[in-house]
TrEMBL record:
UniProt domain HTH CENPB-type: residue ranges: 76-149
Keywords associated with the record: DNA-binding
A Pfam family it matches: HTH_Tnp_Tc5
Protein name: HTH CENPB-type domain-containing protein
GO cellular component, one term: nucleus
MF terms (GO), sorted A to Z: DNA binding
Provenance organism: Rhizophagus irregularis
Keyword NADP annotated: no
Domain of life: Eukaryota
Length: 219
């Protein structure tokens, strides 16, 4: 008789959107155990095989997954490729949060130019990282920065205060001179140069005279 071999358990690939649903459902059902949550979503999604340990791992990053916006991309995203230059990505994330908290509207050009400045500050060589349209697309996808159109003046209501993130950014940038960091006047210059396509991380409704839609999640 051939030796018995235990079959390896197969795990399903779970999309970002399903992970968001799991975290939201757990918040609404605090009395449920992780095994109960797994059973619930195995019934909702019969094609998935989710166990208790998977639920536990997902809930450890609940803040990250609940920040996901339900989009076509989130339903198709299963894995996140590791960022090559983590310190650059962290600096850009904090910068985005900081400038948008002050009502600054992001543009493709502004994002690329700021990334180049950070890359120089972190001694990242030009042949190591190219700020192409592909890089820009992935950066906006990671940070859920969506495009919208502005009609008329580009007024923008400020986001909720982010003191902790601002402190982190200040600590990170304290090692560099002011001429390496754009001030608000330079930022305003780039905004005026691009009046059609803009990006803003967060979702809130404009209370002014025009219809403007902002989309985001803070990860």
């Amino acid at each position: 008789m051939p030796p018995f071999r235990q079959q390896k358990q197969r795990y399903s690939a779970i999309s970002d959107e399903v992970k968001r649903q799991i975290c939201e459902w757990e918040k609404a059902n605090k009395n449920k155990r992780h095994v109960d949550i797994a059973n619930h979503f195995n019934e909702v999604y019969p094609n998935l095989t989710i166990d208790r340990s998977t639920i536990s791992k997902i809930l450890l990053q609940s803040d990250k997954w609940t920040a996901i916006i339900n989009t076509e991309d989130s339903s198709k995203t299963f894995r996140h490729k590791a960022v090559k230059f983590l310190i650059l990505n962290q600096a850009m994330n904090l910068w985005v949060e900081n400038v948008t908290a002050g009502g600054v509207i992001l543009t493709d050009l502004l994002i690329k130019e700021k990334a180049k400045i950070f890359a120089q500050a972190f001694n990242i060589q030009e042949n190591e990282l190219v700020f192409s349209n592909g890089w820009l697309y992935k950066f906006k996808q990671r940070n859920n920065i969506r495009r919208y159109h502005i009609h008329g003046e580009s007024e923008s209501a400020p986001l909720a205060s982010l003191p902790e993130e601002r402190t982190k950014l200040q600590q990170l940038l304290s090692r560099y001179t002011l001429d390496q960091i754009y001030n608000i006047d330079e930022t305003a210059f780039f905004i005026k140069c691009h009046q059609v396509k803009h990006f803003q991380p967060n979702q809130f409704q404009d209370s002014g005279k025009r219809n403007v839609f902002y989309t985001i999640t803070n990860q």
